[in-house]
Structure formats: structure tokens, C-alpha cells
Amino acid sequence: MLKTCLMAGKIMMESGAEIYRVEDTMNRIADAATSKKGITFATPTGIFMSIEGEQHIQLETIPTRTINLEKVSLVNDLSREFSAHNISLEELHSSLVQLEKDTRFFPVWMQILSAGLVSGALMIIFGGSWVDFISTCIIGTLGFIVYYFAAEWLKIKFLAEFLSSFIIGLLAVFVVHFHLGVNLDKIIIGGVMPLVPGVPITNAVRDLLAGHLLGGMARGMEALLTSGAIGIGIAVVFRFFA
């Protein structure tokens, strides 16, 4: 039972769920599986769980974190099915094992294409000109490509974000210098939008409001480091090339 609860929590935490949601889901599974109360303590890098009245505690580490809200929703659905006694604990465990192996990500080409369209659309929303739309889409696409493959190769998320924002800033300066674009600031803002940590910031605030101070501050620091890496990459471009 503990192994099943920890697997559910790990999948949710790796997929970008809030800490209070992770703890609540794990405790609900434990409550439905036994008459004793589950005791859970979750952080962005590890989850501890035990059963009330027992001395044994199990730990599950969280090596990587990404954004995959579909997996979060599927784990919630499975936990509700188990709480309603529609599936057994063994069926829940096997379903979670299968879900953990399932990547359930959009193809890389679709992620890259979406990043370009998002960059151009948000550039317009932030007050940019339609003249810069195509340039911003191309720059956002190239920036996301650099981020994706740098993260795969370097295994350091913040360094990949720095390199990506640096390339975005450099390309924006190039585009404006050769009169292929008009507004440098708006092009850069649109280009870096796919890198902005919107979900981590939202989760950090929600965890803090829910009383999970340690997890909320950890998530907030992660979002702050990501924002800093993006800002430093752009600042280097302005310092030496703009």
C-alpha cells in the first residue's frame, strides 16, 4: 500500500502537481486501503510516508520535475476510482506502473511549432507590431530548440535556459540591426515567453497559501532561479551586443 501511495505521489510531483494535492491524493489512497490514517510529508525533491501507529517510513526521491498536467489528472482519476472501491489496490498499482512508463508528451515537432506560435501571439498581446510577428515566431522556435536539446545534453535546466535566452536575445538584435524587425524589446519578450516558469510560480503561491511553507519556498526559489537565468542571458546580450 505504501509503495502504491508513493508511486502516485512521485508521478504527480514529477508532473508538476501542487504539494498539497500530492499529499491529499496519497492520504486518500491510504484511507481507502486501510483503517489507519496515512501520514505524508512531501517536498519538491522527496516524499516521506508512513501509517499512523507504525514505526516504518518509506521515502521516494523526485529526481526530475516537468509539466504534464494530463498525468496529474489521470492519477487523480485512479485515486477516485480506488476510493469508490471500483478497482482493487493491485489494479491501482498496476495502472500507476503503466502510467509511470507512459511518457504522454506531445511530439517534439509539435512542441517546437507551438513555442513559435506562442512567442508571436504573446508579442502581439504585449503591444508589439504585426511586422515583427514572423521574426518573433522564428526566434521563439529557435530559442526553444536550443533549450530542448541543451537540457537533454547538459542535464542542467538553468544552464539550458540561460543559453536559450542568450540565443533569443542575440537573434533579436540581429533581426533589428538588419531591419527585419522593428521593436527589439517586444521581440525579446515574445521569444522568451515559452521559457517563463508560469506553472512553478503558480504552484509556489498555491502551496504557500495552503500552508506548505517549505515546499512553496522551494518551488518559488526554483522559479526565481529560472527567471534569473533567462534575465542574465538577455542582459549579457544587451551588455555586449546591443
How would you explain this protein's 3D organization?
By secondary structure, the protein is mainly alpha-helical. The chain has two domains: 100 residues, no CATH class; 133 residues, no CATH class. A three-stranded antiparallel beta sheet has the order 1-2-3. The model has no long low-confidence stretch (mean pLDDT 90).
Encode the helix/strand succession as letters.
HHEEEHHHHHHHH
Share in helix: 55-70%
Strand order, largest beta sheet: 1-2-3
* Number of helices in the DSSP assignment: 10
Counted up, domains total 2
Radius of gyration: 21 Å
Strand content: 5-15%
Number of strands: 3
Largest sheet: 3 strands, antiparallel
Unreliable residue runs: none
Residue-averaged pLDDT, rounded?
90
Task: Briefly note the structural class of the backbone.
Answer: mainly alpha
Q: Quick one: overall form?
A: elongated
Q: Topology, pairings included?
A:
Blueprint: H1 2-14, H2 19-33, E1 38-43, E2 46-51, E3 57-61, H3 69-83, H4 89-101, H5 108-125, H6 133-154, H7 157-177, H8 184-192, H9 198-209, H10 213-240
Antiparallel strand pairs: 1-2, 2-3
Helix pairs in contact: 1-2, 1-3, 1-4, 2-3, 3-4, 5-6, 5-8, 6-7, 6-8, 7-8, 7-10, 9-10
